[in-house]
Predict the structure.
Amino acid sequence: MRSLFLLALLTVTYCQVVEKCRVDTYPPPETTKLGWVKVDLNVDPSLRWKEAILPVKQEIKDLIGVITGYINKYVLTAADVAFGVIGNTLPEPYRSEMKGVADTLEMPFGEIVLYNIFYEIFTVCTSIVAEDPSGKLYHGRNLDFGLFLGWDDKNDTWILTERLRRVLVNVDFVKDGKTQYQSVSFLGYVGLMTAIKPHAFTVTINERFAKDGGFNGIWNWLLGDRSQSWMGFLVRDVAMHAGDYSTAKDMFMKTPLLAPAYYILSGNSSGEGCLITRGRTEMLDIKELDVSAGVWYLLQTNYDNWVDPPFYDDRRTPGKICMKEMGQKRAGASGLFNVLSTKPNLNKLTCYSAILQVDEGLTSWIQDCPNPCTPW
């Protein structure tokens, strides 16, 4: 109750912390750089995550405990059954992978499904694609997560966000000894939200708030509609099956979704960058890079680009100011990281920042926002 009261107070008295565009945050300390684990796609799906999650078994259980701790124990028992039913209808290999995660963690299957579903409907993010003067494309993203799930007033942090940072890792998905695609992930989650297919494309997804949202999609799924793709599973499907930027873009534009989303892509050639705004059943808008028309970058938070963001969550305007100040000549890993590390795009919900470049790879860092800092 105290956390909810504090959150209500924060909302009423809310004022975003906006700072001068940073130019001094890159490179970040080596101690913040995320490490790597390998997931072998030749291994049986029920076993392929075991080696990666065992070292942080307790951390994942503690994290899921934060989520389930807000649910009445009798409701949780019913939810374990309900989400277990949902899990048994999910496509392979995700169903078997989640069952394997549940077995490794010695937890109910339904709670692992719930843990994975959370990322479909509760993620707040900033994504940027930029083209430098040579035509090289860079893709940056902040992933913010943990809103409404416990404010720690002693440390001025979100409880869930702090837990999430403990299970962050880069994942190298290999088959026959060769990298197929890579991602930044919370261990125990089997979809992808930030991914790269080397030499082909990069992609990030941002949550899109809409009336016809993820809860409607889940309900339709329970009623038997299996035509929809879970947005994190779609990213992984595309990473597995699309061989180039054009094919990936087509799949993200046309595939029916469980929840509305923004898909932000970059490729390996000049102009190959786009922001796709999706409803659950159709594409609503696409914006593409066009340097000849002055569009050398695209920046997306969690609001449609044709409407103004709300005053209490305007990360778009400060982000664009910093991109303009940076300029195309300085577009690159350091420039994008500095923008992502400028408040309020850096806030108390920010778990990590990542920079992706199709030929140079993926690098990511744990982020922490020092006070004074915007709660979200």
